[in-house]
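Researcher: Next entry in the queue.
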Amino acid sequence: PTSICPMQENVLQRVLQLPVVSSTCETLQRKYSSTKESHPLMASVCEVYERGVQGAGALAMWGMEPVVRRLEPQFTVANNLACRGLDHLEEKIPALQYPVDK
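Model: Structure for this entry, 102 residues:
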């Protein structure tokens, strides 16, 4: 592991790439898709919810853009500190490198 995240990478991306996290996300996605396929009513409710979340997310990103630009140096420092913390966790907890089923 590296002690500072590359500029294009952030701590969230690193966490999502951990096998234990990515395998959990894949399992949840499969269960969600399976539930939508087997229950048509649930599928329509989920689709409405998904569209609402996408719209709210886009609106939030548009509104937050000036704040994010202004706080970018602080975010970079926080990201680097979080990456160092993640390096420490990866060293101390080897299970993070394995999928959930292992």
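Model: DSSP finds four helices and no strands in the chain.
Researcher: Noted, moving on.
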